[in-house]
Amino acid sequence: MSVVAEQLVKVVEKTERLIELCAALQEENELLKSENLALNTSLADGREKNKEMEEKLRVLKLAKSFSETNEKSLDIKQKINEFVREIDKCIVLLKK
């Protein structure tokens, strides 16, 4: 075989290997794209769940602050009632 023919065969072989490599890379690229899509979907779901949890936490904190306020209000009302009773007693004593 002549040198030119040998070089042509080598070029054809290298071209075939490049075509195979290109096909493998395209397949890998498609797999990576589908994995990327799945991960982005999972990330979006996670962000949505995180947002929902933050809202629940905010509501719970708000509810807790109201319950503490109600307990404080009850204590304040009881103290006011005690003061009113004491004042009433003083008024009764002053009238005598």
Write the layout of secondary structure elements.
Layout: H1 3-95
The proportion of residues forming helix, as a percent range, comes to over 70%
Q: What is the succession of H and E elements?
A: H
Write down the overall mean pLDDT: 89
Number of helices, where a helix is a run of at least 4 consecutive DSSP H or I residues: 1
Largest β sheet strand count, sense and barrel closure: none
Overall description:
This protein is mostly helical and 96 residues long. The protein has one helix and no strands. It has one helix at 3-95. The longest helix is centred in the middle third of the chain and has 93 residues, at 3-95. The N and C termini lie far apart (139 Å). The mean pLDDT is 89.
